[in-house]
Structures are given as structure tokens and as C-alpha cells.
Amino acid sequence: MKSIIIFLIAAMSFTPAMSQGFLKKLGKSAKKTAEKAIERNVNKKVENEVDETFEDKNTQQNMESDTNDTVKNQNPAQANMSVEAIYAKSDFVAGDEIIFDDPMVNEQIGEFPSQWDLLHGNAEVASMGGIKCINLEAGTNATIAPLMKDMRNYLPDVFTVEFDYWVNSYTETNEGPSQEYILRFFDSEGDNVMELEFAEGRVNWVYAPGSGDIRSGNVHDYKEVINDWSHMSVSFNKRAFKAYINGKRVVNIPNMAVPASLAIKNTGWDDHRTLVTNFRIAKGAVPLYDRMMSEGKFITYGITFDIGKSTIKPESMGEISRIVKLMTDNPGLKFSVEGHTDNTGSAASNQTLSEARSKAIVDKLVELGISKDRLSSSGKGQNSPIADNSTDEGRAKNRRVEFVKM
Do 356 and 328 touch, CB atoms closer than 8 A? Predict the structure, then answer.
């Protein structure tokens, strides 16, 4: 019986009605039975790959959690260092030309998010943990897509997608709402090429390869930090699709049909909560050295900060590690690290913020072994825009860090 349920899950994924989710037609009881069966039969190699995230002793002490329970007894500073170490080892490279960016700063609670289109159900701006986010209303099959000029064809053949999503306590007794996030990619005709379902310690995917039959895969017992925001990153490079949760790669597909647009959705179940924020799409990255040699500098959007602060986000460590490697491999390189803001807020506060952020980057590079005499910091505030500050996309491009060769 259990093998039949697993087969049904796979078979349902191959139907045109993928938007109904992987498991909806089976009902909740069958869903839980199927999940438990899959969890017991996941290939041991996959489990080992997931567990590699926690090999470091500090990581084991500070990020370890039961599959269905909260993270316990974390020292925040140590836990943050462990998360940074994971990101530093990640092969994800954020795109360097922003296509879509929504930090949610100017949105109004209770309103529909202004940079999105509603495809189904209902969604509104909410707040979780003091951070504005989009709540895709439970029970409505809520589906939203970035509001673009050409809604069906805006993704290039090399791109990255990043956003934060909320995971709260989840237990076998269903205390509190559960989570069900579904990220969907479509070709230029509007047909599914990838459906990625994640949260609560598991990732499922169904995709169309460049040719041949529909394929699927899964990873279970993924250990997430819960009652907090997690970070999802996706990269696509002409045919290769990868997905990362909190810096750890969980999906690695070498050959997938080329996507042209995307949407994110909740399910039709009443107990599923879906909250997302800080959504960004960018054209794929050019290697740092190539950028520097062609222009005498490089611009990075891969180093990000808490809103209105100079605190470097952990997901920035992948980009920072690549800069460390660039400078280590080229000991004659010296950089002026220059912080730039958009024109939101006062010129004085933006100047102060940009100075603090550029200094924070220099301090981090020095902490990681780069000699201080090879670096200087400079805040440019809002004074050197490279795009139109009257548009969301323009402001996103202006919020940047430049490494200028000295």
C-alpha cells in the first residue's frame, strides 16, 4: 500500500495540473503516510550529504534541532558564526544585474504588495518578527508572480532567485500552522518546467528535462532553523538548476528545460502558512576577476545588510569568501570598498549608513585574513546613482557595493 501511495505521488506530479501541488489529491492522512514512507526510504547518500552541513562541532552544537521541534539552547553569536561558515562554503553566486527586487520597505500592512501580480487566491502585506512580508492566504491556493512588463518572458538563460521564508514550530501533533512553499517556473508558453516544494525539513521537486520524460526527486529530514527566517537561493545556468536553503545545496539538476517566468504559491489547505520577503531576481554573475580587469572595479549585490543597519547578513559570506580568494590569489590587489545607497531617507543618514557598511565589509575581510593596508573604506551615500531612483529596479541597482582597484 505504501509503495502505491509513493507511486501516486510521482504520477500526480507528472500531470498538467501541477499547480494543485504534489500531494493535495491524496488528502492529509495519505500525505503523512506517504511522507513517513519516503523518509524511511530516502537514499542514505542523500542523508549523508545533508548531514555534512553539521560536521563542524560548533555547527552541531548551535544549529542542531529535532526534525519536528524547535532549535534548542543556541548561543546567538556562535550560531551566527556557524551559519556564516556554511554560506562561506556554498557555491552559490548571486547575480550581478538586478531584474526584480522587493525589500518590502514601503509597503502598507494589509494591502496587496505593489510589486506583484495576483494569479489566484489572496495575498497581503503582513509582519513577522518585525519584518514586513507577503502572506499568501491559507486555503486559497494563493499564487503571486513578480509584476513585469512581459509576464511570460523575463528570465534570462543565466539567473538567480533569492528570498527569505518563515518556518515556525511544527510537530506531529500539528501545534500551530504548518508551512508549504511551492516555487514554480514556466517556459515562455506558460507550461511548468519546475515545481519546487519545500519547508518543514523536506524538499520535493518535479521538473522537465531538456528532453525526455518528466523527472522528480526529494530530500527529507533537512534541518532548518525554525521560528525564524530561512533563505532560499536558486541558480539557473543555461540548463543547470540548483537550489540552496541557508547556503546548503539541496537540489542539483544538470539538465532542465529553460524557464522564462516564475510564481510562488501556497496550497489549498487551511492550516498552511506561507510568508516570504526580500525577493530578488538577478541576471547571472560574471566572475569577479573578469569584471575587475575589464573596468578596474567590480560591483557586487551579493553583500547584503539588515535594513537600515550595517550588519552583514550571513548569506553574504559566499560573495565575501570569493573576494578573499581573489585577493589571496592576487597579493598585489588593493581595493577601496565603496558603499552606495538609493535616495530613500535623508542624504545625511544615507551617507552615515554607507560609511558604516563599507567599514563593516573591510573589517570582515581583515578578520578573514586580508591585510588592512590593502583595503580602505568609503561611503558614497546617495550621491553616485547608476540607475533611476524613481523606479524600484533603479533603487535596487543603486544599493550596491563597489570594489575599486587602487
Answer: no
Query: What domains are there in the chain, each with its CATH number?
Result: 2-80+90-283 (2.60.120.560), 288-405 (3.30.1330.60)
pLDDT digits 0-9 by tens, 100-111:
999 998 899 999
pTM for this prediction: 0.73
